[in-house]
Amino acid sequence: MDFMSIFDAFQNTMLLAAIAAWASAEGVKMIIRFAFYGKRGFSELWGSGGMPSAHSATVCALAMSIGLRYGFDGGIFAIAAVLALVVMYDASGVRKEAGKHAVAINQMKEALASETEAPPKKHKESIGHTKPQVIAGAVWGGIVAVLFSLIG
Q1: Residue 110, domain member (yes or no)
Q2: Which of 25, 73, 65 minimizes the C-alpha distance to 49?
Q3: Domain for residue 114, yes or no?
């Protein structure tokens, strides 16, 4: 493997579709957070949670791209589809529950903090997704994959 073959990855439309789905979902998320909640800044791009799920968009764009390129009946699509399902389940299940725990812990920390202490550092509460956020991300990823398959 030579150094130049690394640049071949930038011609891989399946990889590019996944990256584009992630980036565009994060962009949409940033716009939604600004429009509805007044939050602005690029720090919002790196946050977890929110509409649409960028994680779901990424893995669904990858799976759909693989299916469109190699067929939906092959082993490589099966691997990508299972990966996508695990990521989406994790986003709406495990990480969503961890966010609920963070809310409860933050409330307990606030209640136990004395007035003379600095406010306790809060745990991040928005780390998971609702099912509509996951579904929107999955649909977004599918759309991006189809668009990339048409131009690539």
Answers
A1: no
A2: 25
A3: no
Residue 3 lies in a domain: no
The phi and psi torsions of 124 (rounded to 5 degrees) equal -70, 125
Our count of domains for the chain comes to 1
Average pLDDT estimate for 92-103: 69
Interacting residues of 51 by C-beta distance below 8 A, sequence separation 6+ = 28, 29, 32, 132, 133, 136
Does residue 94 surpass a pLDDT of 80? Answer: no
Other CB atoms within a 10 A radius of the CB of residue 48 amount to 17
Within a domain: 119? no
